[in-house]
Specification:
Chain lengths: ~240, ~375
């Protein structure tokens, strides 16, 4: 299990220094992310914004240990992770990071409960050991009672909640959410953001929400803006923090 | 055990696909079990018919018609060889005789020897149709064809003209079925003293020493050993005298192995292609599992387990189907029965499972190449 809760202020959860990702070589080389440097504190709630093709997904993939930077360094809780072998990155991903995608990406062969349990089972836990935590997570997301339904029998909003419950099961230090409400209507979008906030408050999980929608980003505590692979803005959201 | 759990769920959610592939394996293994057992039993039956009640190795004189000396040294060589069937060694003297009842006549080959030794090779007691095989000085054991020709029953006299010009009347002790028409008509067994008196040989002079082996196909090696140790004799063995039969058996075995090998290749290709399709169908699921931290090896094991489960189910079904075919074959009007050998069935089953497992290599390698990023961004 990952360490959760707010860590010491002196040690950030994520430290990216000169993070760069280049695709291809020579004349055809494309720089998707160019020297991104920033830190994310434990329990922080921030947004990463940028237009399509700005490099935000590539940056997210590197932060999610799905992709490796071609240059620069990435640290999680003080430990360098960019050079780790594939298997160790997979293990860290399982312990530290929860993913929420635009598409729910539930496994259609499994029930809601099994989908939610999956990250713990991947880590080697037995279902009985983590069942209570899974139910607790479903309660937190207000979808208790759907455990035995097949993922295909749910509405879009329910599916996304199940996907969030799955991302939270291992109590990750950070949830990386890539356009998590892109496929949801206004009501469900509101509900999902409220949930993220609640979880952030109650579990101390950090959230990095990737979006191209400024109005969505306005509701987070900090906004990092990326354009053409470069970070062009990193601001505290005074409006929100001041207003609440 | 997560890969197994996922494998089972994948199989369960595509029941038709799973059933078809398991059925394919079953048909392959059933063919293997049936063809293999059929050929093995057919060959065993042919070998049994050919040599089941004849000597496997014979020690005789180098010159035809001359006696061979069977002294203690020869007996020691034979009896000390662990490959001979215990008790199935008999020194025999053979002479011709003409049987006649006044109306018709028949040439007989009289084989004289110890009853127990002759019985161990020719199974006279087991093959007796009527009477009790005995070889006292005036007893004769004859074949069924001769008995029919002369209308003889146990206890009846049979007059014989012998090569030395003498005439003897023997009493039929038993009538035996020696397994072939020619033998039943010509072969007869008598007391060892009768041919000796005709041939006027010494007590240690015989036509041949006949031996059966525990394992008939050891005959060439046994004969080779004995030739080295008994240089003054001629040692012949059944394989040397039945080269055509052996060639036929070998050709039959080769074609049987070919059929079995091609069936297995077809099964392997079937499993590999179905699993490969399954791996493509499940690319999204594998990508999602990898995104949440499943390693390449764990992901590959999903398809290894699928192959193992399909292989086990298909093989079990195949062995069952194979036995069903063998049972069906037992009603066919043939001269032999198929007795499936447990070791062969076990071998077929393990080959089936191994082939299934090996077939999962391609899909398993494919899963290693699945990039979660592509899956996630592809929607």
């Amino acid at each position: 299990m990952a360490e959760t809760g707010i860590g010491p202020a002196s040690r950030p959860l994520v430290e990216a220094v000169g993070l760069t990702r280049v695709y291809g070589e020579g004349e055809t080389a494309t720089v998707a992310v160019d020297g991104a440097t920033f830190a994310i504190a434990e329990g922080e709630f921030l947004a990463l914004i940028g237009q399509s093709g700005s490099g935000k997904s590539t940056l997210l993939n590197m932060l999610g240990l799905l992709d490796t930077p071609t240059a620069g360094s990435l640290r999680y809780q003080g430990d360098g992770v960019s050079g780790l072998p594939k298997a160790e990155r997979a293990q860290l991903r399982n312990q530290l990071i929860g993913f929420v995608f635009q598409f729910h990406h539930l496994l259609p062969e499994f029930t809601v409960l099994e989908n939610v349990l999956m990250p713990a089972l991947v880590a080697g836990a037995r279902p009985a050991e983590v069942r209570d935590r899974a139910i607790e997570t479903l309660e937190l997301l207000g979808i208790v009672g759907l455990e035995d339904k097949n993922a295909n029998q749910l509405s879009g909003g329910q599916k996304q909640r199940v996907a969030i419950a799955r991302a939270l099961l291992n109590r990750p230090a950070i949830v990386l959410a890539d356009e998590p409400t892109g496929n949801l209507d206004t009501t469900n979008t509101e509900a999902v953001y409220d949930l993220f906030r609640t979880i952030n408050r109650e579990l101390g999980t950090a959230f990095l929400i990737v979006t191209h929608d400024r109005s969505v980003a306005q509701r987070t505590d900090r906004i990092i803006e990326i354009r053409d692979g470069k970070i062009i803005g990193d601001v505290r959201n005074e409006y929100l923090t001041g207003g609440s | 055990m997560l890969p197994l759990k996922i494998a089972l769920r994948f199989l369960k959610t595509s029941p038709v696909q799973s059933a078809l592939i398991a059925a394919g394996i079953s048909v392959g293994i059933a063919t293997q079990v049936f063809v293999g057992s059929l050929i093995t039993s057919l060959q065993a039956s042919l070998v049994e018919q050919t040599i089941g009640s004849t000597p496997h190795v014979t020690i005789q004189a180098q010159e035809e018609g001359e006696p061979v000396r069977i002294d203690d040294r020869v007996w020691r060589v034979v009896r000390e060889d662990a490959r001979i069937e215990p008790g199935a060694a008999v020194a025999v003297r053979v002479t011709n005789a003409l049987a006649s009842d006044g109306e018709q006549s028949a040439t007989l080959l009289l084989k004289g020897g110890d009853l127990d030794g002759l019985d161990a090779i020719y199974r006279l007691r087991e093959r007796a149709v009527s009477g009790t095989p005995r070889l006292r000085s005036d007893d004769i054991v004859i074949g069924t064809a001769l008995a029919k020709k002369f209308s003889l029953a146990p206890g009846d006299p049979l007059a014989l003209s012998l090569p030395d010009g003498s005439r003897r009347t023997l009493r039929v002790a038993a009538i035996v079925d020696l397994g072939s028409e020619a033998a039943n008509e010509r072969q007869a067994f008598v007391n060892a003293g009768l041919p000796r008196s005709v041939l006027r040989w010494r007590a240690d002079e015989f036509t041949a020493l006949e031996v059966q082996l525990l394992e008939p196909f050891d005959s060439a090696a046994v004969a080779e050993d004995w030739r080295r140790r008994l240089r003054e004799t001629s040692v012949v063995e059944w394989q040397g005298q039945n080269a055509d039969l052996l060639t036929a058996l070998q050709s039959q075995s080769s074609s049987s192995y070919m059929i079995q090998a091609f069936v297995l290749v077809a099964v392997a290709l079937g499993i590999a292609s179905t699993l490969a399709i399954s791996a493509v169908q499940k690319t999204r699921q594998i990508g999602i599992l990898k995104a949440m931290g499943m390693g390449d090896r764990q992901a590959s094991r999903i398809f290894l387990w699928q192959a193992a489960v399909l292989g086990l189910a298909g093989t079990a079904g195949g062995v069952g189907l194979g036995f069903l075919l063998l049972w069906g074959f037992s009603f066919a009007p043939v001269q032999f029965s198929i007795s499936p050998e447990p070791t062969f069935i076990a071998l077929s089953a393990s080959i089936g499972i191994t082939v299934s497992m090996a077939s999962s290599i391609i899909p398993a390698r494919r899963t290693s190449r699945v990039d979660p990023i592509e899956v996630i961004q592809g929607g």
